[in-house]
Amino acid sequence: QKEVEQDPGPLSVPEGAIVSLNCTYSNSAFQYFMWYRQYSRKGPELLMYTYSSGNKEDGRFTAQVDKSSKYISLFIRDSQPSDSATYLCAMSSNTGGFKTIFGAGTRLFVKA
Amino acid sequence: KAGVTQTPRYLIKTRGQQVTLSCSPISGHRSVSWYQQTPGQGLQFLFEYFSETQRNKGNFPGRFSGRQFSNSRSEMNVSTLELGDSALYLCASSLEANAGELFFGEGSRLTVL
After folding, report:
1. Are the beta carbons of B100 and A44 separated by less than 8 Å?
2. A41, A46, A99: residue with CB nearest B56
3. Computed from CA positions of residues B98, A79, A64, A91, in that sequence, does the dihedral angle turn out positive or negative?
4. In terms of Cα–Cα distance, which of B69, B60, B51 is closest to B89?
């Protein structure tokens, strides 16, 4: 079993839709939860960064962390064609240095 | 502020050769992590360095090695290349206090023939 599970998709939605992306994990030591966005032929860029459980909102993006269920989500409201990218969840703990583990990434297509 | 710089961006090698990839982190960032990205396996953690010390290592064979210099720049080396080493190698830097807040370069795309 992988430490982080993420459905690779692809996920195709019409412009303006609400997108829900999810990951599950098995390591209860993870304390930091992130979502990265990666466009084709580019490195990943950090979208959302959350410590421990709870919600965090940034514009059209909302990240949720449920540590009791080992489940994290990213919601994108009013999705745009420019949101078409691969979204990677990531998790880490800071015990003995950084080791951030990534999910497989979900490819999202937003159709105009 | 300049981002993470990786060189070379593209390279082609043959089996059995070795390769060295370079990474310059964001100024002030002392942690550098390396990842291998392939379509089948996604982003896989190679190693993380801080102040010239390797603090964490992923599950890769000993052919994969790295180091960090006193100016925080980092290199990774892959010896005796295999076809399966073809991948995008990504370097990321971060501040010590912000575990997981990684800033990635655009990667070095290695093709092994």
Report:
1. no
2. A99
3. negative
4. B60
- SS3 per residue for chain A: CCCEEECCCCEEEECCCCEEEEEEECCCCCCEEEEEEECCCCCCEEEEEEECCEEEEECCEEEEEECCCCEEEEEECCCCHHHCEEEEEEEECCCCCCCCEECCCEEEEEEC
Which residues from A are below 8 Å from B35, CB to CB?
102
- Which of these, B22, B28, B30, B33, lies nearest to B57 by C-alpha position? B33
Pairing of strands A101-102, B5-7: unpaired
pLDDT value for B99: 65
Q: How far is B96 from chain A (nearest CA, A)?
A: 9
Q: What is the mean pLDDT of residues A69-88?
A: 96
State whether A100 and B33 contact (CB < 8 Å).
yes
Q: Round the average pLDDT of chain A to a whole number and report it.
A: 92
Structure tokens at B107: 């990667």
Asked whether the beta carbons of residue B48 and residue A101 sit closer than 8 angstroms, the reply is no
- Residue A96 above 70 pLDDT? no
Cβ–Cβ of B100/A102 closer than 8 Å? no
Chain B nearest C-alpha distance from A39 (Å): 10
Say if residue A30's pLDDT is above 60: yes
Structure tokens at A111: 């159709």
Residue count of chain B:
113
Determine the average pLDDT of the residues in A63-89: 96
